[in-house]
Specification:
Strand order of the largest sheet: 3-2-4-1-5-6
Number of helices: 12
Mean pLDDT: 94
Distance between the termini: 7 Å
Strand content: 5-15%
CATH class of the largest domain: Alpha Beta
Structural class: alpha/beta
Number of domains: 2
Radius of gyration: 20 Å
CATH architecture of the largest domain: 3-Layer(aba) Sandwich
Largest sheet: 6 strands, parallel
């Protein structure tokens, strides 16, 4: 029997997670922990759709804008911070809410991730230079020789994952795969997984509107201010890298905005693929608050009587 429950509000970008989480948190009298890996950075407000001051004023939010793009941060550090906050929240509340679209961050909180060491920035810089000089094929071949086991199951089109594996391997002298035990950590709460989804055309329209709104709210100026730091890992993300190409005259502004929309749609598709693979997930439309609350109350009541 669990007497503490973590309500997870997941789903693709622009589906309505923030508003749903706020309404549920107010109804349940609890607080929200951010599970968006980009909203942790204080310098990236406009381009990451961080909750507005009005939204933040309605419910206490945690792990929003609390880190700098200049700091090293990963899912392992996020896990430590989120669990520490949950321990405090569960001393006062029976339920807490985790809201966001970063599947790995959600899994880190629910099950833990392996204790992977922090990386020396010099190693990271050196490997990034190799990637810039030799491209994806260059780091793929290095991964094959450094860690053939991880190479077999890695997403070889994701340079961030490949670079992370190479960083750990170089720093420790051990293959990255040797750190991936896959053993779930013991948690003092039970996750209740809720995922929001809407028809594709509606989601795509939301994404297009959101990008246009970000541009109107000053995304180009925000990105221009961050351009001197464009090599930082935190800024290798949709909404910024396309504008960096615009600043370098590789794209027109209209082309950059079009690519942000395209890449955001692709990201939303990857998010949905991830969340569909998670077991024990209950799917809802945004706005179905009553149905969601019934599901939460019924699940808790059933568990407490078994």
């Amino acid at each position: 029997m669990h007497s503490r429950y973590l309500i997870i509000i997941a789903g693709p970008t622009a589906v309505g997670k923030t508003d749903t989480a706020i309404r549920l948190a107010r109804h349940l009298g609890t607080e929200i922990i951010n599970a968006d890996s980009r909203q942790v950075y204080r310098e990236m407000k406009t381009g990451t759709a961080v909750p507005s001051p009005l939204q933040l004023a309605q419910v206490k939010h945690h792990l929003v804008g609390h880190r700098s793009i200049h700091e090293y941060y990963n899912a392992s550090l996020y896990e430590l911070e989120a669990i520490e906050i949950l321990d405090r929240l569960f001393a006062r509340h029976n339920v807490a809410i985790l809201a966001g679209g970063s599947g790995m961050y959600i899994e880190a909180v629910c099950h833990g991730i392996d204790d992977i060491p922090s990386v020396d920035p010099e190693i990271r810089d050196r490997l990034n230079k190799i990637y810039l000089e030799y491209g994806l094929a260059g780091i793929q071949s290095r991964l094959l020789s450094a860690d053939p086991e991880y190479y077999k199951k890695a997403d070889l089109n994701n340079p961030k994952r490949i670079l992370k594996a190479l960083e750990i391997s170089e720093m420790t002298g051990r293959p990255y795969s040797s750190f991936l035990t896959g053993h779930a950590k013991e948690r003092k709460f039970q996750p209740l997984r809720i995922c929001l989804d809407i028809p594709r055309e509606e989601l795509h329209a939301n994404i297009n509107r959101r990008v246009d709104s970000m541009v109107a709210e000053g995304l180009v100026d925000e990105a221009r201010g961050l351009y001197p730091y464009s090599e930082l890992n935190a800024l290798n993300t949709v909404g910024y890298k396309e504008l960096f190409d615009y600043f370098e005259n590789k794209l027109t502004l209209d082309e950059a905005i079009g690519k942000i929309k395209d890449h955001t749609r692709q990201y939303a598709r990857r998010q949905l693929t991830w969340f569909r693979k998670q077991k024990d997930t209950k799917w809802f439309l945004p706005g179905q608050d009553e149905l969601i609350l019934n599901f939460i109350h019924e699940t808790i009541a059933r568990n407490e009587h078994t």
